[in-house]
C-alpha cells in the first residue's frame, strides 16, 4: 500500500485479549516507515476487536474521514467499472466475483469484461445476501453471470453488448495464452537450463475451485522444492480447466492438477489430442503426497482413469427412505453398474462415488448406452440436482516407468 502511494488506515485487531499491546504494533510499524497519528504521524489507527465487534464504529468514522479528505467522487450515471476483491467457483451458483464498484452503476443485465472473461450480470447480491437491481459507486457486491473465475485485482468494465464483451475477452485470452506459452520452457530449453544449474524442474499447471485453495496448493508445492529439484508452477488460477491451460501444459510437457474442478468440453478435446496428463484431487495432502513421490522417484502404481460415459441429470426423485435416485439421459458412451463416477455441477465436483444401482424402466440392468434414459442410485450421494453432469470411468493401477 505504501509503495503504491495509496492512503491507509491501520486497524489493530484482537484488542479484547488481555495480552494485547497496541503500542508494540505501532512501534513495529515504524520499521516499515508507517507512522500513525499517535506517534505524531499522519496515518490513522484504530483499536478494534472483530470478535467482540469493538471499535468498528470508530473504524467506519476513520474511513469516512479519509474519504472526505481525499474528496473521493464518482459519477453514477455512466457504465460501471469495478475491481474484483475475490472470486470463486461456487458449486451451486457457478463463477461468483465479489467486486467493489468504483465508477458508474452496475445493473442486472449489463454485459461486461473482467480479465480474460466475459459475461452478463445475472444477479447482483449485496453484503446482506439480498439480490438488488443495481449497485452504485463504493458498493461491494457479489456478481453472478461470469463466463469463468477472474483473479483478485482484475478490473470489471461494462461494455455495450455481449458480442463486444466476447470479442474483447477472446482477444485478451489469445494474448494471455501467447504470453504464457512464450514464457513456458520447451523440453530442450529445460534440459539446457538444467544442465547449467544442475537443478531439475517439475513443471505443473494448477486449477482449483476457489482462490484460497489455489494459494494453499501453490505454497504446498513450493515447500516440496529443494536444492536438487524444484516445482515450477507455470500457471495457477481458480475455475474450470480451460483450453489455454491445456495448451500451456502441452507446450511444457507438464501435468495439470485439478482440485475440485474438471475441464470444460473444449478442453477435454485438447487433452485427448495432446495427451496431457491430468491429476485430480479433493484433499491437498494427497496433492503433495503424490507430487513428492514423483519428485523423489518413489512412485507407486499410476492410477489410470478411462472415461467410459457421460450423462445429464434430468430429474431427481426418492429411492427408499434415505436415498435419492437420478433420472439420466446418456449423452456419451455407456453407463455401467458398479463403475466409479463423478457428479459435477458447473464444472465443480460435487461427489466422487460409484454406481450402486442402474435401472431402465423397472428392470435392473448392467449398462445403458448413448441416447437412452435410465435411473441410477449413487453410493453415499444425495446432493443431486437437475442439470448436474455424471461422468463414469474405469480405474486401472499401472506400474510406473521412469
Could you provide a short overview of the structure?
The chain is of the alpha+beta class and 402 residues long. It folds into 4 domains: 9-70, no CATH class; 81-175, Elongation Factor Tu (Ef-tu), domain 3 (Beta Barrel); 184-298, Translation initiation factor IF- 2, domain 3 (Rossmann fold); 306-398, Beta Barrel (Elongation Factor Tu (Ef-tu), domain 3), CATH 2.40.30. It is 25% helix and 39% strand.
Describe the structure.
By secondary structure, the protein is an alpha+beta fold. The protein has four domains: 9-70, no CATH class; 81-175, Beta Barrel (Elongation Factor Tu (Ef-tu), domain 3), CATH 2.40.30; 184-298, Rossmann fold; 306-398, Elongation Factor Tu (Ef-tu), domain 3 (Beta Barrel), CATH 2.40.30.10. Helices cover 25% and strands 39% of the residues. It has eight helices and 23 strands. It has helices at 22-30, 56-70, 162-183, 187-197, 211-222, 243-252, 265-274, 284-296, and strands at residues 9-12, 44-47, 81-90, 94-103, 106-107, 111-114, 117-125, 131-132, 134-135, 140-146, 155-159, 200-208, 229-238, 256-259, 278-281, 302-319, 323-336, 340-345, 348-360, 363-364, 367-369, 373-378, 389-398. Strand 19 and strand 20 form a beta hairpin. Helix 3 runs parallel beside helix 6 (243-252), helix 5 (211-222) packs parallel to helix 8 and helix 6 runs parallel beside helix 7 (265-274). The mean pLDDT is 88.
CATH class wording of the largest domain:
Alpha Beta
Binned, the helix content reads 25-40%
Biggest sheet: strands, sense, closure?
A: 6 strands, antiparallel, barrel
Tally the helices.
8
Report the portion of residues in β strands.
Answer: 35-45%
Total DSSP E strands: 23
